[in-house]
Each structure stands twice: as structure tokens, then as C-alpha cells.
TrEMBL record:
<comment type="similarity">
    <text>Belongs to the acetyltransferase family. RimJ subfamily.</text>
</comment>
<dbReference type="InterPro" id="IPR000182">
    <property type="entry name" value="GNAT_dom"/>
</dbReference>
<dbReference type="InterPro" id="IPR051531">
    <property type="entry name" value="N-acetyltransferase"/>
</dbReference>
<keyword id="KW-0808">Transferase</keyword>
<dbReference type="InterPro" id="IPR016181">
    <property type="entry name" value="Acyl_CoA_acyltransferase"/>
</dbReference>
<keyword id="KW-0012">Acyltransferase</keyword>
<feature type="domain" description="N-acetyltransferase">
    <location>
        <begin position="13"/>
        <end position="173"/>
    </location>
</feature>
<dbReference type="Pfam" id="PF13302">
    <property type="entry name" value="Acetyltransf_3"/>
</dbReference>
<protein>
    <submittedName>
        <fullName>GNAT family N-acetyltransferase</fullName>
    </submittedName>
</protein>
<dbReference type="GO" id="GO:0016747">
    <property type="term" value="F:acyltransferase activity, transferring groups other than amino-acyl groups"/>
</dbReference>
């Protein structure tokens, strides 16, 4: 695997490595409405130390084949609006897609655009066999993103995740490279 984190370009976005100077912005965005509530692993509060640790870990996580984590930036202004990642399994040649976008930038198609780009990178550059993802059943926005990028609904795990004192149902999605249709 390449040592350097990639830069991925879409019509409106640049997915690129987060920089140390973005830690405060990352912390502010990750503490925004519904971020921690709708994700399995993002802590709340999301401290400045957490942001620094996350940013610092990304190059080694990619070099070691563990994950690819990039900031989602608006192409015109370079504004950081979220984070997208693929947790990688070399043994299974698979990636698990995760993402979040700041509240003030939701419902504008940015998440779908970013997710399609990183999935394409996973299939073409990382030679993944499968990309999958999951979301809480109550998070219909995330489910729509997965469907828009071509991930197929694979099932519902009832009560599979304990979050904020409640057992949550998880919706499972996935796609094999052989079934993937690249955007034209």
C-alpha cells in the first residue's frame, strides 16, 4: 500500500488528509448536532485532544493497511465539512465505510458524493472485493446515502448495538466489486 494518504477529487469536493491546524475545526464539527448520536465510535464530547490524536493517527493507519480516513473539504473554499473513512481488512479484501458531515452541510448531496468517491477508490486502487457499511435503523439519511451509492440492503440486526442506554437495530449494507457500477 502507498505510504501517502490520497487526495480524491469530485466535482464539488476534495477528500484529503486532515492537517494539524484543523484540529479545532474538527472538534467543533464533531461536537455538532447528531454526530456522536448517529455514529458508533465517535466520542462525545469530542475534545481537542481527540481531534489531534485522530489526525495524527491517519497516516500510520493507512500505511499499516488498517484504515483510510480523510477530511471532506469543499473544493471551492477548502472548508472542512466532515470525515469519511474505510476501515480495511487485508485478510478479507474488504472495507467498512463510515462518514459524517456537519449539520449545516447536510442534505446537499455532499455525503453521497464523498462516499461514492471513496468507494470507487477502494474498488479501483485498493482492489477491495467488498465494501460494506451499517447505520442505526433510525438514521434514514445514512441509509439513503448507502442506497444512492449502490450498496445493497443485506439485513437488520435487531438490538445489535447498545447506545445511550438503548439497544439499537442496525441496518447492514454491502456491495461486491463485481456488482459495482462506477459513476460515469
Amino acid at each position: 500500500m502507498s505510504a501517502a494518504l490520497p487526495h480524491l477529487f469530485t466535482p464539488r469536493l476534495v477528500l484529503k488528509p486532515l492537517q494539524k491546524h484543523q484540529a479545532e475545526t474538527l472538534s467543533e464539527l464533531a461536537n455538532g448536532p447528531e454526530i456522536a448520536d448517529n455514529t458508533a465510535a465517535i466520542p462525545s464530547p469530542y475534545t481537542l485532544d481527540t481531534a489531534h490524536s485522530f489526525i495524527d493517527a491517519q497516516p500510520e493507519n493507512f500505511r499499516s493497511g488498517h484504515s483510510l480516513g480523510l477530511g471532506i473539504h469543499l473544493r471551492e473554499t477548502d472548508e472542512l465539512i466532515g470525515v469519511i473513512s474505510l476501515r480495511l481488512s487485508a485478510a478479507h479484501r474488504s472495507g467498512h465505510l463510515g462518514y459524517w458531515v456537519a449539520a449545516h452541510r447536510r442534505n446537499l448531496g455532499y455525503t453521497t458524493e464523498a462516499a461514492a468517491a471513496i468507494m470507487a477508490f477502494g474498488f479501483t486502487e485498493l482492489a477491495l472485493h467488498r465494501v460494506g457499511s451499517q447505520c442505526f435503523a433510525r438514521n434514514q439519511g445514512s441509509a439513503r446515502v448507502m442506497e444512492k451509492i449502490g450498496l445493497q440492503y443485506e439485513g437488520r440486526m435487531k438490538g445489535a448495538f447498545f447506545k445511550n442506554g438503548v439497544h439499537e437495530d442496525m441496518l447492514l449494507y454491502g456491495l461486491l466489486r463485481v456488482d459495482w457500477q462506477p459513476a460515469s
